[in-house]
UniProtKB/TrEMBL annotation:
Residues 1-150 form the N-acetyltransferase domain. InterPro entries: Acyl_CoA_acyltransferase, GNAT_dom. It comes from Streptomyces litchfieldiae. SUPFAM superfamilies: Acyl-CoA N-acyltransferases (Nat). This is GNAT family N-acetyltransferase. Gene3D superfamilies: 3.40.630.30. CDD domains: NAT_SF (cd04301).
Length: 283
């Protein structure tokens, strides 16, 4: 097995994508989703080259990949995949070791994990606590949602300082350059008044990509505003809701969304931030 850092080029990004699609053959990959995936790989290869590794067999075929980020004092795992034929041969363990080496000296760590038993063992063995999560999905019934209790406006690059400030308060570290990438393919709703501050990224497929707020009231306002902003009949998805996010469950149930188990929010050196819905990709 040969390991090398993922480089900021299309060939390496496509190699990571090849391994990922092989590891999850039942998932659908639209042209848009693929383009965003390739952008994420290259974004993290640029900002965090020491946390991004590609494993190849002796023939040069990609068999595994890991993408990890370091934002101030928080380390996050964005991706860990191993091709089916290489599983159980130590590839994932070695990739995780390289990614964790990038976390040395950090206080906190976060992973949004799929319901995969082998991965859960690896994360627990690395010292992460496993917090079961839920997902909500379905067609939004706007008639059942209450009118937001205050203004939530369309955000943008001008709100970077506000968003980083909220991040630091909730998870101890800003998202920094990840906001630039998120703004490329999501709309962001922002609230800032005497009741608190917060923001919510919403992808064009109805997925809540990331939500952070300094109070439950602001979080409810942001999530409600984001769902009401979807086109009529659109499907919404909320992911990795821990038991601490009951406010999100209430909004989701009011909107007519269905609830199901999801995976785990894996944390080290911290409790689940709240009110907070993590980004699977950017945490």
């Amino acid at each position: 097995m040969i390991l090398h850092q993922v480089r900021d080029n299309r060939a390496d990004a496509e190699a990571v994508h090849t391994v990922t699609t092989a590891a999850f053959p039942d998932e659908e990959w639209s042209e848009r989703r693929t383009a965003r995936f390739l952008r994420r790989v290259r974004h993290l290869a640029t900002t965090d080259p020491a946390g991004c590794w590609l494993a190849e067999d002796d023939a040069g075929t990609p068999v595994g990949a890991v993408l990890a980020s370091l934002r101030e004092s928080l380390w996050g795992l964005s991706l860990l995949v191993v091709a089916p034929g290489a599983q159980g041969k130590g590839v994932g363990t070695e990739l995780m070791r390289r990614a964790l080496a990038y976390s040395r000296g950090t206080l906190r760590g976060m992973i949004c994990a799929r319901p995969h038993a082998a991965a859960a063992r690896v994360y627990r063995g690395a010292g992460f606590g496993l917090h079961p999560t839920m997902r909500m999905t379905g067609t939004v019934d706007a008639t059942r949602l209450s009118v937001p209790d205050g203004p939530a406006i369309e955000g943008g690059p001008a709100h970077r300082d506000l968003m980083d400030s909220v991040d630091r308060r909730l998870r101890g570290s800003a998202h920094g350059p990840d906001h630039e990438e998120l703004l490329r393919h999501c709309r962001v709703v922002v609230a800032d008044d005497l009741g608190g501050s917060g923001y919510c990224y919403l992808a064009d497929d109805g997925r809540v990509e990331l939500l952070a707020a300094t109070s439950r009231r602001i979080a409810v306002r942001l999530l409600t505003s984001a769902l009401l902003g979807l086109p009529a009949g659109a499907t919404a998805t909320l992911r990795h809701l821990t038991a601490e996010q009951e406010w999100a469950l209430d909004v989701g149930f009011a909107a007519g969304l269905d609830l199901a188990p999801d995976g785990w929010l894996c944390l080290r050196g911290m409790r689940p931030p709240r009110p907070y819905l993590p980004s699977v990709q950017y945490l």
